[in-house]
Design goal:
By secondary structure, the chain is mostly helical. The protein has 10 helices and no strands.
């Protein structure tokens, strides 16, 4: 394959994959490859959405599993914070408070009125969130699940 064609193809697909949230987000691609894991289904979902323009249509019309009130978000900052401050976050969660836990709560947008509940819930679920040998992604997934189960904090689980 010609290098120019390959570069052009990658540049064309990059914006679609950036908005895809790893699985096509919404649109026909996300429906066709729903629940499938791995690189191939992700690429196919993103390619389907990106090349046919159906995701744009879905967002505009509120169809195809898309909503018009969505927020563009990324959890890379949270991942970087946890990865770079892992010991401090774990220490603060295990004790129920501290600077790094305060910073994490601010990073994911926990309001001041919900911070006491956030500190309590992360403390009570410390061993679930920070399992032995868990990587950053596993810690984030566990934190997301713990918050999603709590009625007061569930709204923050989508920010992780």
């Amino acid at each position: 394959m010609n290098k120019k064609v390959l570069v052009a193809t990658l540049i064309t697909l990059l914006p679609a994959s950036a908005m895809a949230d790893n699985v096509g987000g919404c649109g026909v691609g996300s429906k066709l490859f729903d629940t499938q894991k791995g690189v191939a289904p992700q690429v196919l979902a993103v390619t389907t959405n990106g090349t046919s323009g159906n995701q744009t249509f879905g967002i505009t019309s509120g169809t195809l599993g898309c909503t018009q009130d969505g927020v563009v978000k990324s959890n890379w900052k949270t991942a970087m914070f946890i990865d770079g401050n892992r010991e401090q976050v774990a220490r603060d969660m295990s004790s129920g408070g501290g600077e790094s836990l305060e910073a994490l709560s601010a990073l994911i947008g926990v309001s001041d009125q919900h911070k006491p509940a956030f500190f309590r819930v992360t403390h009570e679920n410390f061993s679930t969130i920070f399992r032995a040998e868990a990587g950053t992604e596993q810690v984030m997934a566990a934190l997301r699940e713990v918050l999603a189960r709590d009625p007061e904090l569930a709204r923050y689980s989508t920010a992780i």
